[in-house]
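Listing S7. Sequence submitted for prediction.
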Amino acid sequence: MAAQVFLDKYEVIRPLGEGSMGRVVLARQRDNDREVVIKVMHEQIAQQPMFRDAFRREMALLGQLQHPNVVAFYEASDNDPAGPCIVMEYVQGSDLEQMLQIQKQLTPGQVGWLLGQLCSALQTAHSLGIIHRDLKPANLMIVDAGSPQQTLKVMDFGLATLSNAVYISLDKLRGEADITACGTPEYMPPEQIRGDEIDPRSDLYSVGVMLFEFLTGKLPFDRPSIPELFQAHVEDPPPTFASLGVTDVRPALESVVQQCLSKFPVERPRDAFDLAQRFGVALGHKILDQISPTASGALTRNDLAPALPPVDPNAMVRELDAYMPERIAVVKLRGFVEDVGGELVESIPGLIRVRFSGRECRYHIPTRSGPLSWLGLGTKGAKGIDLDLRMEKSSSQSAELHVTLVLRPSGGLPMPEDPAWHLCCDRIYRDLKGYLMGK
């Protein structure tokens, strides 16, 4: 039986594993005999709305993440006959999960060495707007263990969330799907479980769980079920090292670990470099000298935001800023649309489109021949009002949203000159502003 081939040049050698997103195979590049790892997305994932657009943007940004402590990204395709795939460096070694099964507990010096390299990789990734979201010992590989070339490699950045543009799927806006958290339960930050916004400091919580495990040989939270584990992450304080019988770790080191395990991002170290500095001070020597700056000309999240349709120059445009995590935005936007009898038409990253039409809609626009034509609201051929909500986060570490409202007649018709039509659009803006900002 002929081996499966990806991108006409990578011949599959054997499977390596399978997860919720897809399967992983070892392959050989035909033209230079190099072994690579290929991650193939499951068909049901690839068929989801907006997957291919998100896939292209994520892979373009991952191509900019070149760091000695990150498994290298080579190329990707969203239309290969064998399925959407990511081709990455194949590294041989032992992951930290395997190491912990043997050693059970690491020395503070070993932990400092690991943390220095991990923080270097994270600071570079975070500067590009890439959040890992699934940091755990199984995703940290030790290459050339025991040799002078011993190196830490971070794997699975392909699961990162990369876009600054706000994307809330239609099923969430319509209340047809729950907002779910993804990641590994033992290492998941509280905000991810709550459904709040995540930022680079969410990765630092996962690092804190690993530091706790490295230094004590135990996880901070060990519960019999996932719901109980989630509740512990959100509500319970981590145990002290002493309560676990660990008395040979400096209190200053434990304090840094506990800071990482704070329930809210603002209480944790401000970034990966800050964490490395704090741990180094507590350890008694530097574990990270400096962070390599992002390469000149590197892409940013905004560079890769999906191209939105241009704003109609004849439309009415209004803007506002609101401090609102995504899960709150879902509730408020859904409530607004339901209360005024609108219809959710489309949702793509950075844009939600709503239509106001029909008898049940508060903002129904009649034609000139209708019974309310004397108000001046009619536009011949118009079937309602289209509202485009363009939403963007101010930064990766903020829940502040900049919202641009674009109002125009449906059907691509020109903006009428009737003053009452403009008053109606102003009313929509004021009502939505009240929902979003509580005014």
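Caption to Listing S7: primary sequence and predicted structure tokens for the chain studied. The longest strand covers residues 400-409. The longest helix spans residues 108-127.
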